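Suppose a classmate hands you a notebook page containing two proteins, each written out with its sequence and a corresponding row of structure tokens. How would you begin to make sense of it? This section walks through that situation. The first entry is reproduced here exactly as it would appear on such a page.
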Amino acid sequence: MQLGQTIVTIRKENGMTQEEFAAKFHVTRQTVSNWENEKSYPDLLTLVKISDEFHCSLDTMLKENPKMIEKMNKDMKYGASSAYIGGICAIVLFIITAEMLMLDRGSRYILILNYIIIFANAEAVKLTFEQLKKESRRVKIFFAVFILLVALLSYGCLYYIR
């Protein structure tokens, strides 16, 4: 049995409408309909809640639907990649902004904008370094060399422009 059919069966055995089922799990009726028609799938936390609430095996729900497992694996893989890319972009922007502050003492509006950029990127930079702690030594060295090259290159460009 596929996950969509499992959700339909659980819902009907408990005498629930799609609206009632949706309210129980804090989603819309359309979302439940999409789950049942397998246009989309519940996230892992919602699957655990469904399993706990209706005393059905999470193992059975997951193993019987290879398409959903493949989608979850892809989401996890690309989610981590995009987090790295976003973190690297934040660090690069952080470095360039810091260098602009050092080299340019011009307009106070630019100065305020630079401080806002640094403040906004601080959390992304922190999260990237926390994620980097889990990586191998080779990845850490590559990351450090990349950031150093970006810093030197951007400093040189900004100094030249000035």
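The notebook's second entry, a different protein, reads as follows.
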Amino acid sequence: MPAPLYDSLRALAETRPLRLDMPGHHGTPLPGGLAWPSAIDFTENGATGDLFGDGPDAIRAAEGLWAARFGFDACLFLTGGSTQGIHAGLALLAGAGGAVALDRGSHRSQFNALALLDLEPVFLPRPWMGPEGVAGPMEPETVEKTLAERPEIKTVSITSPTYYGVLSDIPAIAAVCRAHGAKLLVDGAHGAHLPFLGYAGYQAADAVVMSAHKTLPAPGQSALLFANGFPLSQLQRWGSVYGSSSPSYVLMAALDGARDYMEGEGAARYRETARLVGGLRERWPALGERDGLRLDPARLTLTSPDGFALARALRERGVYPEMADAGHVVCILTCADGAAEFDRLERALEEAGPAGPCAPVPAPPEPPRAVLSPRQALFAPRERVELRESEGRVAACQIAPYPPGVPVIAPGERIEKKHLAYLREIGYNKEYCDVILKGE
């Protein structure tokens, strides 16, 4: 299969050019034996292409293959992770000022984007699934109600899948948005593998951000911004605002190579991973699908009466899960994991002990009252105080378990006793928080 960017960089490297530009290693191995593909770590030199240029070049070709594979009009490579894509995507769809209907469970990058673009968040709540102890899928009816009540809102942003693997009905939500003349942005940071498993829901959105590095064989910070109805030049415009003017060619080439791999062997391996995850869900207490709950088939979210203890026991046995909370342990299993890795995980679970029904996890309290806009909160003078002494103060940043980064208290909201009690109840362990200086 073609990997045009990777192939072109390899071919250029094989000519052994005298490299008197960035990066400083000039294609030689790094000191200390650190593994890094220096030979293809180029900058824009006339032969390598330009991520934010007008091509055509190998980068355009590589991005085009991703766009075609996922069913979008355009794809932009991101070397600043999904954070860069979220910022660029909101700028693309919402612009500056105005209001956005926002998933309350959005990643912190969305809250920072609100501040930078001076957008007003109108939060979309998710149903709480008590037996599972997690927030459920975003309901199309919730989006419909919000857009009917606030017709000036023309941008909706949701997350699918969530950190726990919960999928929302993107086509149904996109249909609601279209009926109200609104655009839909999906934070699919944890879903880059799903189209290779046959999932086609993302194509209904206007823009989607995906982190290749989270679930595909790709290095950290490599991500993708997809869009329908927008030319690549518009994605480049906003991607260049929030990204480096010296993007890593290694990361871009890795994105190219990852897609090429997933077109063949990688997809087959991922299908096997999903099958093995299904088996673990049957043998161990874990989130499973039921009416009203659809899950990423490759995400294993174990349940436990003490998720922190289970994660600690796994780490003691050399197994490092992605995250844990009071009632869950989340494991990201990918095409890099085969029968041997699954056997090792299962042996560790047999020894670890505290797997079982989910510990009672209370539903989050009602969001606090917003006192300042996200932009005002970001730029206001602040101070650090003990969390237990913060009641009545206005938060200057998110107060949220991270991961998954879902804010109990968002920037600009007033901290109340019930929110502090909830944070204690779910095991939030941060002692300090940033608050707005009094009088501001």
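A careful reader of the second entry would note: The chain has a mean pLDDT of 93.
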